[in-house]
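Hi Prof. W.,

I finally got the Sugar ABC transporter ATP-binding protein prediction working! I wasn't sure whether to trim anything, so I left the full sequence exactly as given:
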Amino acid sequence: MTAPESPEDGPKPLLSLRNINMTFGGVKALKNVSFDVLPGEVHCLAGENGSGKSTLIKIITGVYRPQSGAVIEYDGQTYSHMSPVTAQAAGIQVIWQDLALFPEMTVAENIAFQTVLGRWPRPVNYNSMRETAVRALARLGVALDVDLPLKEYAIAQRQIVAIARALIGDAKLVFMDEPTASLTQSETDRLIGIVRTLSASGVAVVFVSHRLAEVLEISSRLTVLRDGALVGIYPATGMTQSRITELMTGKTFDQALRVRDVSRNPVVLEVDGLSRPGQFEDISLSVRCGETLGITGLLGAGRTELAHSLFGMLKPKAGTIRLEGKPVRFSSNREAIAAGIAYLSEDRLSLGLIQPQSIADNLVIASLDRIISRGLLSDSRKWDLVARWIADLGIRIGKQDDAVSTLSGGNQQRVAIAKWLATNPKLLILDAPTVGVDVGARAGIFDIVAKLADSGLAIILISHEVPEVYFHADRVLHMAKGRIVNRFTPRDCALQDIEAAVYA
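And this is what came out:
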């Protein structure tokens, strides 16, 4: 284990934590963790889901109070704990993965609304809010129409709005939780440029990301947590993705191509000339039993819209869909499910799962017909179905009736997959199945995908991360501007060939 660097080793830390412990219901979430951040530094906080990253951030920002003995030193002051008000006043800001913005409000209102908050009601000066928003965006080198509702902007621009809002409070330390999870490569490059701008202006940034290539590109140091304990603090120079993965998980992962011949297997899905104006055009493809077909491309390429049309959520204007040789035209996703198509949404939090409901209820919600007995839901059938899939997919839970929100991202994703497997599908569409999932959990999910394909299930794997489709699909389609522009067979090309085409 690498010992935390002491102030004598370099500049005095802006933030220094020592002896941080946190327990929830008898479970040690943090075990004597130490952590520090230097002024203007870009520092990566790495670890699998459940390793304690979010708990540590919530202690720093005053959401949680650590156990006695903790020492928090920030900007020359010493605290046993901080409150949210104290942390914000001191210039500590967090940009969570869900951004916590207001889509119906304007950009200016989202950026500057905190400037009008107070104990007593008072008139809102919208001109002042606009000026504040424009100045904050200019500091990032970005120009947006601040009078437009936020919902008019894509996720990349919303991310910038969230950063601009953090700067309003004279931020000295900004935590970014999975800021690039939903961004294209070009959008990610732009965000990294903004982070460098912040760093150069003296703002320290703590970057939390499961995309390890970004971690190495932007960070000067990494703090690695595993199971609530500090593994070590490391310089980014000389570090590799495989080494970070090993430190985070305590395991090594080997990536190898799935080289299989499924050309003689029967065709499950055949699409010919499928079109929906403004979203995708002239799409033709097929998927066989036991085959994993990868679809990649930048966000906005039409991948998800195509998946929604195959699943009955959108109606194509032209073209045909055949399932096991028979033409189908779905009016709803219910009809698609009944025909044997399952779709795992890229938006697990909003569309994939119902967060407040139990693990068991989430798992059976798409297959209620299988647990009905004499017109009523059968508890015994429900618990049998749930127990089966929890065991088959290795889902780590406390109790079946716990809220699904209590699970880590990786285990939530397994529940979402189990929900669809319980419908006994012929075709499983996985849309960005590893968004917000750490590297160890990703490996587990792709192990499940491989086993499902080996069992004969036809799979469409959609991802904007080229390595995911390269290493885990039998064939890869590259979509751009709503069309299939390239077709690849991974065993006949290099990863760099597909990346060059997608990111050109």
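The chain has four domains: 1-91+172-179+201-252, 97-169, 266-340+425-504, 352-421. Does that look reasonable to you?

Thanks,
D.
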